[in-house]
Amino acid sequence: MMPEIPPHSAASGKQPTAGHPQADLDSSTAPRLNFASDNVTPACPEVMAALIEANQGSVPSYGEDELTGALNQRFSEVFETETVAFPIVTGTAANAVGLSAMTPGWGGVLCDQSAHINVDEGGAPEFLTSGSKLTGLPSPDGRMSPDALQEALALNREKGVLAPPFKVLSLTQATEWGTVYEPAELKVLTATAHGHGLATHMDGARLSNAIAHLNCTPAETTSQAGVDMLVFGGTKNGAMAAEAILFFLNERTRPMVAAMPHLLKRSGHLWSKERFMSAQLLALLKDDLWLRNGRHANAMAQRLLQGLLHHPAAHLPFNVQGNEVFVVLPDPTLARLEKDGYRFYRFPTPPGVPGTLVRFVTSFYTRPQDVDALLAATFAP
Amino acid sequence: MMPEIPPHSAASGKQPTAGHPQADLDSSTAPRLNFASDNVTPACPEVMAALIEANQGSVPSYGEDELTGALNQRFSEVFETETVAFPIVTGTAANAVGLSAMTPGWGGVLCDQSAHINVDEGGAPEFLTSGSKLTGLPSPDGRMSPDALQEALALNREKGVLAPPFKVLSLTQATEWGTVYEPAELKVLTATAHGHGLATHMDGARLSNAIAHLNCTPAETTSQAGVDMLVFGGTKNGAMAAEAILFFLNERTRPMVAAMPHLLKRSGHLWSKERFMSAQLLALLKDDLWLRNGRHANAMAQRLLQGLLHHPAAHLPFNVQGNEVFVVLPDPTLARLEKDGYRFYRFPTPPGVPGTLVRFVTSFYTRPQDVDALLAATFAP
Amino acid sequence: MMPEIPPHSAASGKQPTAGHPQADLDSSTAPRLNFASDNVTPACPEVMAALIEANQGSVPSYGEDELTGALNQRFSEVFETETVAFPIVTGTAANAVGLSAMTPGWGGVLCDQSAHINVDEGGAPEFLTSGSKLTGLPSPDGRMSPDALQEALALNREKGVLAPPFKVLSLTQATEWGTVYEPAELKVLTATAHGHGLATHMDGARLSNAIAHLNCTPAETTSQAGVDMLVFGGTKNGAMAAEAILFFLNERTRPMVAAMPHLLKRSGHLWSKERFMSAQLLALLKDDLWLRNGRHANAMAQRLLQGLLHHPAAHLPFNVQGNEVFVVLPDPTLARLEKDGYRFYRFPTPPGVPGTLVRFVTSFYTRPQDVDALLAATFAP
Amino acid sequence: MMPEIPPHSAASGKQPTAGHPQADLDSSTAPRLNFASDNVTPACPEVMAALIEANQGSVPSYGEDELTGALNQRFSEVFETETVAFPIVTGTAANAVGLSAMTPGWGGVLCDQSAHINVDEGGAPEFLTSGSKLTGLPSPDGRMSPDALQEALALNREKGVLAPPFKVLSLTQATEWGTVYEPAELKVLTATAHGHGLATHMDGARLSNAIAHLNCTPAETTSQAGVDMLVFGGTKNGAMAAEAILFFLNERTRPMVAAMPHLLKRSGHLWSKERFMSAQLLALLKDDLWLRNGRHANAMAQRLLQGLLHHPAAHLPFNVQGNEVFVVLPDPTLARLEKDGYRFYRFPTPPGVPGTLVRFVTSFYTRPQDVDALLAATFAP
Fold first, then answer.
1. CB A298 within 8 A of CB A339
2. B312 CB burial (10 A radius; 0-12, 13-18, 19+)
3. In this structure, is the dihedral angle defined by the CA atoms of residues D263, D268, D270 and D276, taken in order, positive or negative?
4. A291, C16, C312, D229: most buried, per Cβ within 10 A?
5. How distant is the Cα of B332 from the closest Cα of chain C, in angstroms?
6. What is the topology classification, in CATH, of domain D45-288?
7. What pLDDT was estimated at residue A231?
């Protein structure tokens, strides 16, 4: 029997702000069974409306349009520091093209072993940086420890010319395991990196989920936490296809900004009709839509978590702090879910735990009834 | 005084099919003054409608959706041979990522000196192919001659290891100077290339304009003319942002197709919500919208040409066969046009001709009254 | 007190063939204190003589000379299969340029975490392969286990386009920790790799030391053990500067061979006066000089090992099977050695062991009295 | 009948210093028939002696040895400015790795169309710079004109992001057509380049020949002529295999110098036994051996030129100012020369001239009797 779930209760210490009521996106009343990723979603209605509105008249191409012109100001307000924004169409491109501005090909990038750039981007960082070596440090839950960072920096220095010198520290917020760094933790890591001459990169594909969990301002966990460059995720959070590479201006980032237009063009990532990416980003920023979407997704993940906590065979290896729920479930249960049409990803399962580790991802598009149905299916005999 | 212009008359020998009446795209009645490029346009209404329709429900990401699944069949019908299509978001990416499937980094690409890949893509082909050298052959009007091709191939062979061996012949249809290859001309070039072990690439950013001029089938100037890989241009012809890399299946292209998913991913060009690119492409293919858009653009270029032929100071260095009108005009005339809000690009002017070479580009979005107004402004005292 | 050492006794089960008496290379009678690496050595006299002999007359450049022409035949004899050899001047180049023939940039290379290509080549493999991602598997002593290989292959397949598909399995013989694979172990690994469509690469910078330990034929641990491409190390084993990239001809390697001349040229690794590299390699092969050099180096390492086994504070984490002795020694001892002029490298020390892990490398140039002096210094109060 | 040739007479205005008597390098009295290139030669005796001398004892690897440590001082003296030298083993590597320190992959390199980097290095510059686009300007004789440079810079600026911004001007001294820039000509070109923010690269594979022709100091045509980075050619001028990448220290070159060790390592061009390259370079610098070798080669070219000037069917398209003689000769004559064992390269022949353009290259290794024999063979009926 599945226990009754109190709506929006939080597993972690912080109380997530309740999700906003999501306007119906489509006429279909079909159940939403796809928890494989937050990128299986459509665009949210506000984004679609913005695209329609942007589709008026001839405007200069290659980012000389008014919408693109407004981005820097808007992002500077949101992140409370002078920011230069470069829209780009996929998260992999945002990370890899951005990194190519931060390190020469002979430099190294230090990240968590689980980082998206390290294991999920098909070698794009290595390729688009012209060969930068990524070094992934092991960690229990996707969050790099200050000690591991210090050791890696020391070893790298000793290696001299035999190892590419680290030029970038890359952190993921929220992490790939759905956990979240505290701003104070970030500050220690970024200060160490800066002290060793590295620039700092944040993969913020799920930044809104981290902010929702921390209940902090966007700046507190990015620009004010020592981040030099932020990949602002849009596609997983309601855009059709739009991310932004954000440089918070300082001595380190100024030369990177100068190189960016060329790096975008030579990788085929300079849109001619750039207004259509900018429109999506502006729509997400307007009235904090991106944060509201993030809060809603987190609330749905918490709803799912609360249910699973009562599941006798469920094992939850990580804190659920964003919109991803990793859970080990019995294989027959998973087989039945898939037969019922549910979609989710399998992961290598920690040894000694019966069942298989899977991931359920919630989003702005997930409704409470979708979570409840999933839970019911999970508890079905 | 500006002479009266007979609507839709043709300068070249072939009679272009009259443009279709273009539905009003925006409520604005403002004049359309931007002739700088066909990429300053919005998306055409059919494409926008397709995007809205595609925005329904969760669907698998990374091209596993139904719309993307329908592309190969549709393109195979249009080009009358088994075709594998990879949507991609910019023309530069389409050319450069496509080329990266066709040549290793140590191979060479042979093209016309004026080719977009050679002079307008910010080094993307060199970068995304990991260093392939482009060799641009001079030509009078953007169309490579069979003799120039033969000589280049012979010299390349003699060079041995000192020169990257040519692996790809790249042709542009319509060319960068607005001219068009006859299918018979293409066949000679592609047969020569194949005979020397090269694969053949066609940059079809303005293919619809070439087809409109030739009044032929899409296959006649592509798959049936010896082209192995075609970049199908969408963005300049009514899409928001969508091109397609098309491989016509044969022994040469099969291994290229196998590499493509990885090449797309590692260059950041694999959309998670790929349905939104595919929807645009399907909309362009539906009821030959792309061909109708091309014919309309050509008709507008012919209208402009007819007017300019009566201009006493205009010098037209190239045949106008697509949607680009290159014309040398007196500098005061150009200054006045710009002051009036007209937009166009300047080009290096052939020596001995007074004035400056400029380019006016028409599109699906150009109306007869826009051309007439431009002409009137050109003739103004 | 340092115990008496029986000359040439072996710690491991196999009895290494006694080293050949090494002709004095230089007039200096100075002690040889540099155990940092086998690349601090001069060229051995036979190699120097070969260079002098090769310095006669004009000969065709770029490998068209007679000496280079003789390489394939000689290597084919040594490795008992049809072999194509490409001389190249550094070990890093040999590995990385060789790998660039074995995988496209979008492919992955699987190796031990300790592999030279993974941690000591300054990112050359990533760079020269145009971005191939290296995945280093953890192991206790530098030798990959069949289970780890199977798991890595399975995970890679599941990842699909999100991870570069493995194209190469790279093994190091002898390993970076001075251990040696048995031929039967190699066969299991290479068969698994071939079964999954990977080609196999062996970093043989210290192959002669492995062969000396195994007391086998060169073919038994390379061509007959499923290796497709072998980096034949010369510089550490008596050459001035010469390695060879060897392809054992089969269906997998034939296309790699065809690409090699271009890969060498475009990376700046095609010598114009190639006779001078080939002369060195032929000198090493003549009368098994390379194997004799390897046996001598191993014997010196065993001599050192035997002494250290009696050291009360020495901890030896790995089997000494080649010419590298890894040992944890007390920090005061190491400080004194350095003060006495000894040279060696420090490594990250396993936790819980007092002292510091260092490496002593012996070579064809190491004399018994040099080892004995080092031991005496180690035991000094 | 072949006319008598006055020894060492000069065709150009300047009197070349007479070549030094070259010690016999080999015992062979065979005629030296190979005029294909200056890289078909052996090492000169002084270089060989230096290699033997360097082959003493263990020394630190990777350039930490004393010989390498002496290079900067010696080159600084020769070029009369603070110089940092990086030995490297081939000319192609010297150019391409050096360029990779001077431009990011998204920058462009401007050179003469005939430049070795543009047409003879197998794409190494494009590859090792990670995609920099080379733009080759046409010229009559390999020497770029200031006007062509100005135009190219202006067009590049106008292109904006569509063309890789030029970061390097590359000049070849002596040029690929055997001509030589005057220092004043170089100064105009380098000042223009610096004024547009470009750094300046000189391919000095045949610098000694240019200096011999100009009868100037090494500094006058390099460091004092506005060159930032010089590739100092050794291999064609008596080395076994050694070039040097020289940075003349200034604000532009300082960051390049910092990157060089990493660029060398990741391209496989950091020798472990670097002493052996440094020894060759020091031998060339000692007592101006490199300049004496260059003067001798030039004198031999002038001797050949004087003979050919009397040949009724010879057409000499370029001034002979270095050690390369380009001449159009009748095809039967060339066929006979080849049959007699002579070696030379064919080049595309200018239209309208009967016969074939070939190149004869002289060197330190060419003797007067070799030239005379070649001439006699050329005049044979």
1. no
2. exposed
3. negative
4. D229
5. 50
6. Aspartate Aminotransferase; domain 2 (3.40.640)
7. 98
What's the burial of B79, exposed, middle or buried (CB within 10 Å: 0-12/13-18/19+)?
buried
Count Cβ neighbours within 10 Å for each residue of D312-323 and write b for 16 or more, e otherwise.
eebbbebbbbbb
Mean pLDDT computed over C269-296:
97
Distances (CA, A) of C140 to A307, C113, C137, C148, D29: 42, 10, 10, 12, 61
Residue B196, token pair as written in the block: 């020397």
- Neighboring chain D residues of B113 at a CB cutoff of 8 Å: none
**Separation of alpha carbons A278 and A270, rounded Å:** 12
Q: Which two tokens stand for residue D77?
A: 């003296």
B350-371 pLDDT, tens digit each:
888 899 999 999 999 999 999 9
DSSP track, B133-186: EEEEEP-SSS---HHHHHHHHHHHHHHGGGSPPEEEEEEESS-TTS----HHHH
Query: Burial letters for A184-207: b for 16+ Cβ neighbours within 10 Å, e otherwise?
Result: ebbbbbbebbbebebbbbbbbbbb
**Angle, alpha carbons B138-B139-B144 (nearest 5°):** 100
- Cβ of B122 within 8 Å of Cβ of D131? The answer is no
From residue A65, alpha-carbon distances to B41, B90, B187, B241, D59 in Å are 12, 17, 41, 15, 62
For helices A183-195 and A146-159, give the axis angle rounded to 10 degrees: 10
In this predicted structure, what is the pLDDT of residue A15?
Answer: 35
DSSP string across C347-365: EPPPTT-SSEEEEEE--TT
The CATH class for the domain spanning C289-379 reads alpha beta
pLDDT classification of C107: cutoffs 50, 70, 90: very high
Inter-chain CB proximity C162 and A132 less than 8 Å? no
Indicate yes or no: CB of A131 within 8 angstroms of CB of D266. Answer: yes
CATH 3.40.50.150 fits A45-287, yes or no: no
Nearest by CB to C133, from A123, A130, A346: name it.
A123
- Spell out which residues of chain A touch residue C121, defining contact as CB-CB under 8 Å: 162
For residues D310 and A201, the answer to whether their CB atoms sit within 8 Å is: no
Q: What is the pLDDT of residue B26?
A: 56
- Please write the tens of the pLDDT for every residue from C109-168: 999 999 999 999 999 999 999 999 999 999 999 999 999 999 999 999 999 999 999 999
Q: Which residue has the higher pLDDT, B363 or B22?
A: B363
pLDDT (mean) for D11-29: 43
Rounded to whole angstroms, how far apart are CA atoms C121 and C115? Answer: 10
Residue from B97, B99, B161 to probe the interface with C (highest C Cβ count within 10 Å):
B161
d(CA A42, CA C145): 45
Tokens for D311, please give them. Answer: 């040949």
Inter-axis angle of helices B45-54 and B275-285, nearest 10: 140
Contact D278, D84 (CB under 8 A): no
Q: A165 and D262: CB-CB below 8 Å?
A: yes
Identify residue D108 by its one-letter amino acid code.
G
Beta strands C229-232 and C243-248 are antiparallel
The string of pLDDT tens digits covering residues D299-308 is 999 999 999 9
> Are D241 and C61 inside 8 Å of each other by CB?
no
Map out the domains of chain A as residue ranges.
45-287
Distance of alpha carbon A344 from alpha carbon A33, whole angstroms: 9
DSSP 8-state assignment for residue D13: S
Which residues does D326 contact at the CB level (< 8 Å), separation at least 6? D177, D178, D316, D317, D318, D320, D347, D357, D358, D359
Q: What percent of chain A has pLDDT over 70?
A: 93
- The predicted structure's pLDDT at residue C350: 82
Which tokens hold the place of D244?
A: 């040097």
